[in-house]
Predict the 3D structure of the following.
Amino acid sequence: MKRLLRTSQILSLIGASSALLAPVSAFAAEAALRLSTPTPNEQVGNPIVIEGSARGKEDLLHYRLRDANGVTLSEGSILPQGINAETYGPFTVRVTLPAGIQGSGVVDIYQSTANANALSTLIQVPFQVASAAELGETIPLYRLYQQSNSMHFYTSDLPQRETALQLKYRNEGTAGWLYQYSAADRLPLFHLYKASTKDHFYTSNITEKNTAITKYGYAFERIEGYVNTSSTLERITLYRLYNPRTQRHFYTNSAPEANIAVQRYGYKHEGVAAFLPRR
């Protein structure tokens, strides 16, 4: 199940007053580690995606995945990008679980030390593995538009959509569909936001996501869902465009609409944002 955000968080995501901004992550700003996903008891796919950010003197963290009996399923290292004592460095790790794994488990995140047997636990998060039938489920990526700010907003979260409509966003249907859970041939669709330009940025490229955070002032908001890693005739292309004047992005699954945005409204093509499943 996807986690629901507080009203203040929803408002901050769609460009409301900065006074309402609230941390989306599981930890307060003073914490050394912020884990965005999985959230406690979240239902996950396979591979499981571990997403968050960290700061501090140590530049290396460790993860360990255990089943309900405490048996280690997988373990490895996490290297946040650009981490230091003052700045949070983002990280994303995709960990493949053993085939056929079911039920519950726990993600442990540790600090790095010289003695692997004396690692200090920063967080333990329980999770539930989605069933094979659930892995095929898709969810809509809603598309909305606020004319007063010339701003598009996309979300797979229904409460966010309803709040946006209350804030005079116009319903523009869906930009496409997303898988609800991860799988070996799927990537997360990351949602980032830059408050200074009110730009919502979506990408399935982990390196691009981290660079947008560390170099260009974007903040991670959430994983909207999961997309395909490559194109086929059964998949839908989500195009990405950018307007240098407004410094905002626009996404559409219509090639003619993308071309009109370029010809009439000053957008420039930025290629493909993602390949989406058909419903």
The chain is about 15% helix and 45% strand. Residues 238 and 253 are 4 Å apart (CA to CA). Residues 1-13, 16-30 have pLDDT under 50 and may be disordered.
